Amino acid sequence: MRKEIVPIDMASEQKEFMGLVSKRQVLYLLLGGYAIYSYAPKVFPLVGNWMVGVILTIVSILPTAVIIGMLAFYKIEKYHMYLDRYLLTKLQYKHQLGNWSKYKKNLIEKDDMY
Questions:
Q1: Cα Rg, the chain, nearest whole Å
Q2: 85 and 74 in contact (C-beta within 8 Å)?
Q3: In angstroms, rounded to a whole number, what is the distance separating the alpha carbons of residues 110 and 2?
Q4: Where does the chain have alpha helices with state H?
Q5: Which segment of 33-37, 84-88, 101-105 scores lowest on mean pLDDT?
Q6: Mean pLDDT along residues 1-28
Q7: What does the angle CA 92 – CA 97 – CA 99 come to, to the nearest 5 degrees?
Q8: Are 26 and 33 in contact (CB under 8 A)?
Q9: Spatial contact of 16 and 25, defined as CB atoms under 8 Å apart
């Protein structure tokens, strides 16, 4: 079998938007921005003082921003995966146990077939 050398790394994620972020990362940023935009204006007027409103809004935005930032940009170097792909693989691991065996158990006995 012939091997061809390609000039780019096919396994890595391609940075398509200005060479800085990929489509996956842009999607995370858009969804996170939409989530923050949907609840931040409702948090601001909860208190009468505008300064306390600003602080409360920033405190409410931080958890969403940190989670979205970690899922989009944090790469686990040991596995060469971003955090979202790693978590997805970990969650699917339990369902994949036993599916790879060569010999499967027969659920119907041969005597029951006749």
A1: 24
A2: no
A3: 47
A4: 23-43, 50-73, 83-96
A5: 101-105
A6: 74
A7: 105
A8: no
A9: no
